UniProtKB/TrEMBL annotation:
<protein>
    <recommendedName>
        <fullName>G domain-containing protein</fullName>
    </recommendedName>
</protein>
<feature type="coiled-coil region">
    <location>
        <begin position="280"/>
        <end position="333"/>
    </location>
</feature>
<feature type="domain" description="G">
    <location>
        <begin position="71"/>
        <end position="135"/>
    </location>
</feature>
<dbReference type="GO" id="GO:0005525">
    <property type="term" value="F:GTP binding"/>
</dbReference>
<dbReference type="InterPro" id="IPR027417">
    <property type="entry name" value="P-loop_NTPase"/>
</dbReference>
<feature type="compositionally biased region" description="Basic and acidic residues">
    <location>
        <begin position="51"/>
        <end position="60"/>
    </location>
</feature>
<feature type="region of interest" description="Disordered">
    <location>
        <begin position="29"/>
        <end position="64"/>
    </location>
</feature>
<keyword id="KW-0175">Coiled coil</keyword>
<dbReference type="Pfam" id="PF01926">
    <property type="entry name" value="MMR_HSR1"/>
</dbReference>
<dbReference type="InterPro" id="IPR006073">
    <property type="entry name" value="GTP-bd"/>
</dbReference>
Length: 637
């Protein structure tokens, strides 16, 4: 299905049953076109079952008003049609052959000339389109003009653009002009403005000479000027463009082109119209040209076969096949002219539907290709990232001195959230947020701090002291279920706590525990039962971004290994994954996952030493200052 492209701010794209057009009720008298008899259609024509579009379809959804006017803008590709329309409408006019450009080859843009009058500018293709044959272009224009005519839409005039930079009127420019003359007809020429563009690219003297040649040469513009067409220069600015439009709107009468009369009033097929006959004549000349060349190539092929020149024969076969294809295309284009108005619409819809599907398929294939390439890039990026993280971890690991303990065990508390952290060792507390910033007084000793989700500029926190617990004022807002658990179990015997994102938490008391986590994680936490003295004990829990987690256990005596852990990082915390995957029997004693991002963590684990045990630490953070400060804390003795 084709889409109308309307340029103004209030316009919208709407379905138009395979054509793009605009309507106008503002012209004076109009008569209903007679219906086409069924027996006047060619034998291979598609059945005419399609009704003409509603008038409002020609305005891109705008309501029809009495003073509305329609002006067609024509000319060869590159003559400045798009920029001219853009200067008037104030909207960018699409150029090229995207999906929409191919399915709506005739576009309409609204120019609000005054509060009570809108001028709809019709952007038409030239007969030199590299992606469309001349037959397709004529069919598109015929569908638009015929459909609008049947819907009581008449043109106020036509603006025909020509590059003054063209040295001579030849090739596509000459062909385009011949088709334009036949399409318009003599009666419509009095409301045609022939406009030269790109005067800034030639000298005034040279431009004037070429302009005079156009005006005084009958086969160029001379005949049209004698029939009432006017000649103007376009200065490539807004005022110049609008002045040309205003000149046409000043006429009180509207025009009917020969193509409209012949297709609708006379019920002719496209090849019987003046424009169609002109194009058919060009196609026959083209067919004769290719047929002559084909004959010459075939003669050369016979000579090559006679001379047993296989290389020349193969080369000539390619040329022969090329000419054969060109002849077939010309024949197809000639046949495509043998249709009436309704059949043209049906054929166009079918052609555009096929083209649209092809382009959607290509777009999907392109999307799939991009997806595949992105996946490969991600794999490579992850590999490089893993190698980089491994190098970084090794680099930091060498800078960190281990803690040694001959008897018993050392207690550490670590927590981080965003750029904030708290780290507590047996000899020093270091942090940049929370109660650790204020030294404890008297016998009050800070044992651990748990940072949670940020609330405003600072994270929530809960601190465990030697004589009780303190918490931030926003804890009950960000973690309401934890607040309820603290009220139920009390705060005096709280042993451990972890705060995660989205109100998730884990808290353990002397004889009970509580959590607000997904079901799969809750099952992993249930292995701890305070009533079973020989069951595994949870040492530490880390709750991170997007549901990531790490749980470390201490198993009962006699159970190997003595320590174990489980984790689900959801594809995040790649540096941590490298550590956990390489150290299967890691004795984790403390861990924190940053709930605000998917990379940062701190982990402390225990290793056997010659005398007693040693403790190792690894910190990974997006923030270099955090890494330096945590390493300073760890190396402090």
């Amino acid at each position: 299905m084709a889409l109308v492209h309307a340029g103004p701010a209030h316009s919208r794209k709407i379905p138009t049953r395979g054509i793009t057009a605009m309507s106008d009720d503002g012209c004076e008298e109009f008569y209903d076109a007679p219906a086409m008899p069924e027996n006047d259609q060619p034998e291979d024509a598609a059945p005419a079952t399609r009704e003409p579009p509603e008038p409002e379809d020609f305005r891109g959804g705008r309501t029809a008003r009495p003073n509305d006017a329609f002006i067609a803008v024509m000319g060869v590709t590159g003559s400045g049609k798009s920029s001219f329309i853009s200067l008037c409408s104030g909207k960018a006019v699409r150029i090229g052959h995207t999906l929409e450009a191919c399915t709506a080859i005739v576009d309409v843009y609204a120019y609000d000339m005054s509060p009570d009058q809108t001028v709809y500018l019709i952007d038409t293709p030239g007969f030199d389109d590299t992606n469309k044959s001349d037959t397709e272009v004529l069919s598109e224009i015929a569908v638009w003009l015929g459909s609008s005519y049947k819907s009581k839409i008449l043109l106020s005039g036509i603006i025909y653009l020509h590059r003054i930079t063209d040295v001579r009127m030849q090739g596509s420019a000459k062909k385009n002009l011949l088709m334009f003359k036949q399409l318009c007809g003599q009666d419509a020429l009095k409301q045609v403005i022939l406009v030269t563009t790109m005067w800034d690219k030639v000298s005034q003297e040279e431009g004037t000479r070429r302009e005079e040649e156009l005006i005084h040469t009958s086969e160029f513009w001379g005949w049209m000027v004698s029939k009432g067409s006017s000649v103007r220069r376009h200065g490539h600015n807004e005022s110049s463009a609008k002045e040309l439009v205003h000149q046409l709107i000043g006429h009180s009468n509207c025009i009917t082109t020969d193509l409209q009369k012949q297709l609708i009033d006379e019920n002719l097929t496209l090849d019987q119209t003046s424009a169609g006959r002109e194009l058919k004549s060009e196609l026959l000349k083209e067919q004769e040209k290719w047929a002559k060349r084909l004959h010459e190539v075939e003669e050369q092929m016979r000579e090559a076969i006679k001379q047993r020149d296989q290389e020349a024969e193969e080369a000539l076969k390619e040329v022969r096949d090329e000419y054969t294809v060109k002849i077939q295309r010309v024949e197809q284009d000639t046949v495509a002219l043998r249709f009436n108005m309704e059949s043209l619409i049906s054929q166009r819809d079918a052609r555009l539907s096929k083209l649209q599907q092809k382009m959607y398929d290509e777009q999907n294939a392109h999307t799939a290709q991009i997806k595949e390439m992105n996946e490969k890039v991600d794999i490579l990026a992850n590999r490089l990232s893993a190698e980089y993280m491994h190098s970084e971890l090794e680099h930091h690991h060498k800078r960190l001195k281990p803690w040694h303990c001959r008897k018993g065990k050392l207690a550490f508390s670590i927590s981080m959230s965003g750029v904030y952290y708290t780290c507590i060792s047996p000899v020093i507390t270091r942090c940049n947020e929370g109660p650790g910033q204020t030294p404890a007084s008297g016998s009050k000793q800070l044992r651990s701090v748990f940072l949670g989700k940020k609330c405003g500029e600072s994270p929530t926190w809960l601190a465990r002291y030697s004589d009780g617990v303190e918490m931030s004022e926003n804890l009950k807002v960000e973690y309401p279920r934890l607040q309820e658990a603290l009220a139920t179990h009390g705060v005096d015997h709280l042993k451990a706590c972890t705060l995660g994102p989205n109100q998730t938490y884990y808290a353990r008391w002397k004889s009970s525990w509580s959590s607000n986590v997904p079901d799969n994680l809750k099952n992993a936490l249930k292995v701890y039962d305070p009533k079973k003295r020989d069951g595994p004990r949870i040492v530490t829990v880390g709750l991170g971004y997007d549901g990531a987690y790490v749980i470390a256990y201490r198993n009962s005596r006699g159970v190997k290994p003595s320590h174990s852990f489980t984790y689900g990082l959801k594809g995040h915390y790649q540096a941590l994954k490298e550590i956990l995957s390489k150290k299967k029997n890691l004795k984790i004693v403390a861990i924190t996952l940053n709930p605000e991002n998917a990379t940062d963590f701190i982990i402390i684990w225990e290793e056997k030493a010659n005398k007693g045990k040693s403790y190792r630490m690894q910190c990974y953070s997006q923030y270099e200052t955090v890494i330096k400060e945590v390493e300073t804390w760890w190396n402090w003795r």
